[in-house]
Amino acid sequence: MAEGLLIVNEAACEAVVTRGAAFAAVESTFAAMATGEAWNFPVVREALGHADALYGFKSGFDRAGMALGVKSGGYWPGNAAKGLTNHQSTVFLFDPDTGQLAALVGGNYLTAIRTAAASSVSIAHLARPDAKVIGMVGAGHQSAFQLRAALEQRDFEKVVAWNPHPDMLPRLQAVAEEAGLPFEGVEREELGAQADVIITITSAFEPLLMRDWIKPGTHLACMGTDTKGKQEVDPAILTAATVFTDEVAQSITIGEAQHAVGHGLMGEGDITPIGAVINGTHPGRTSEAEITLFDGTGVGLQDLAVAQVAAKLAEEQGKAQRIAL
Ligand code: NAD
Asked: Domain check: are 249 and 312 in the same one?
């Protein structure tokens, strides 16, 4: 690694990290996690008792990709009133050979693009090849990133969407129109009836989709549940599905599977790391009628993978600053 500390700001990250590059980086780190070459360290998350903020660290080491570091940040609910994003984070990359700080990389855009890459990796590996309709549950900040990336994975012909506040749906309609696809705001039952692929990306604490509404062959990417107590789908959907995740330990504690596991409906042995499908040690989908579900909980290694891409490309393209340590 070159001498000194590289600084890559948010604008540089947005300019250099494409959806394709994020997909490749996240897919590689999921694959390395499944072989044990990459692992995440325990997550720290604390309420500060100041500014209503939640603050924490997500870190890990990918020996295959030579990424070592930490994403530090959290949630400041008062930021929006100051014209700032509520979620704030920064990635610190270290030289795995020396421990020296190698790069400081803005983490806000990267969080959205790496989360979208995770659901896209799951769609690429698990959705039916002939999937035509994509259903979006949730229309917040992440949803547009999710939809844009997902649309690149299959020849989708239509977007359907539901949100508790329908006035937020134009955000998704704009993405559909950008891709030249028809868009329809629908009720949740109708969404299940139409969609071949469903992404859930809400802050819900109760099931929004019920088992009977999901048709055979559907692939679901449940991306919103990343904390104890959150929930987006009926646990019966998980028991009906073949379940995959980024990291099993997180899936059963803070992911969507926490509820099915907590009710004794399934165990951790019923959940497969998506990296095993990427590596070819698990067949993934084995029939047209199978329901597949990806429980995307969000791991630090995803952040490190895309931050590494950002640092490399921003330096190559003259969009980063290097200072002496
Ligand atoms: P946001 O605040 O911009 O949007 C929240 C969305 O959830 C909106 O569609 C809102 O209408 C909906 N919502 C809020 N409360 C709800 C409720 N009680 N029931 C149903 N829907 C509700 O947030 P965002 O940045 O788009 O993030 C969405 C979710 O994704 C959050 O829960 C966030 O923690 C999670 N997230 C997960 C990962 C990951 O790696 N898995 C990464 C980033 C964010």
From this structure: no
